[in-house]
Write a structure and sequence with these properties.
By secondary structure, the chain is of the alpha+beta class. It has helices at residues 45-51, 121-125, 128-137, 163-170, 175-178, 183-187, 200-210, 234-237, and strands at residues 4-6, 21-23, 26-30, 34-39, 56-58, 68-70, 84-87, 92-98, 102-109, 112-119, 147-150, 160-162, 188-190, 195-198, 218-221, 244-250.
């Protein structure tokens, strides 16, 4: 089955069970026990707390690392260094702060759990998503039952890098991924002998599949943060770029 693509500011494609709807601050999917929110440029911690007062927001001090933490309501906001967090507690909104990097969320329906990941190219190269999956699996989470949401980020057509960076990213994949005949079509486009366009979401999807996730449970949001002015972009705006916040949370049973 194909990966389902979620177009920006609209409902998901017909083969997805998770429908996103526009919100003044971004796009959201609200289910009985799950709320996934992909923020746009006006989604900061202040506006999100005002819009969603029922949630406790938890931000990590992101460092483009591969550090994964299991967190709870007792953990203070913006105090833990790392780039991935997961919890089984309801009402704790796990944030991913981005400006071209990819927010990735993992949802386990049974046992109930949610993870938030900040996945820049360094994090992807260091398998931050794979390490988060492994951390959850050691606590009894069934990865084959999990849903994976890959949010707005710099897409292939805008993500031009030196081939040394491309190769560092590709080395995060298994030999099976790297020996496919269509690797160039799937994962990158060579521009010349020195530079390529790389598809970060395709690499992350391949990592998820090779680590126990199911292809049909991967959902990608097709918004290019560099070219879409609804989003902050470091590549586009450099030092003047802001950051948008996305989050995932397990909803309280009474909501």
């Amino acid at each position: 089955m194909p990966i389902s693509f979620l177009p920006p500011s609209s409902s998901s494609s017909s083969n997805s069970r998770f429908h996103f709807r526009p919100h003044p601050l971004g796009d959201e999917c609200v289910r009985e026990s799950l709320h996934v929110f992909f923020g746009q440029r006006h989604a900061n911690v202040g506006t999100l707390r005002q819009a969603f007062p029922q949630y406790q927001f938890l931000r990590l001090k992101q460092t483009h690392s591969s550090l994964v933490h299991r967190v709870s309501h007792r953990d203070p906001d913006f105090a833990i260094a790392g780039d991935a967090a997961w919890t089984q507690e309801r009402g704790l909104s796990l944030c991913s702060i981005t400006a071209d990097c990819m927010p990735v969320f993992i949802y386990s329906p049974e046992p109930l759990a949610v993870a938030s990941i900040h996945a820049g190219w360094r994090g992807v190269a260091h398998q931050i998503v794979v390490k988060t999956m492994a951390s959850m699996a050691t606590e009894g989470i069934d990865l084959r039952a999990c849903q994976f949401f890959l949010g707005p980020h710099i897409l292939r057509q805008s993500f031009e890098v030196e081939n040394s960076v491309r190769d560092e990213i590709l080395h995060s994949l298994t030999k099976e991924n790297l020996t496919k005949d269509n690797i160039t079509t799937d994962l990158f486009t060579p521009l010349n002998s020195a530079r390529s366009l790389v598809d970060l979401s395709a690499v992350v999807a391949a990592q998820i599949e090779s680590s126990g996730g199911r292809r049909e449970n991967i959902h990608r949001h097709l918004a290019d943060t560099k070219t879409n002015l609804l989003y902050h972009s470091f590549r586009r705006d450099r030092d003047s770029a802001g950051r948008q916040i996305s989050f995932a949370v397990l909803r309280a049973a009474t909501e």
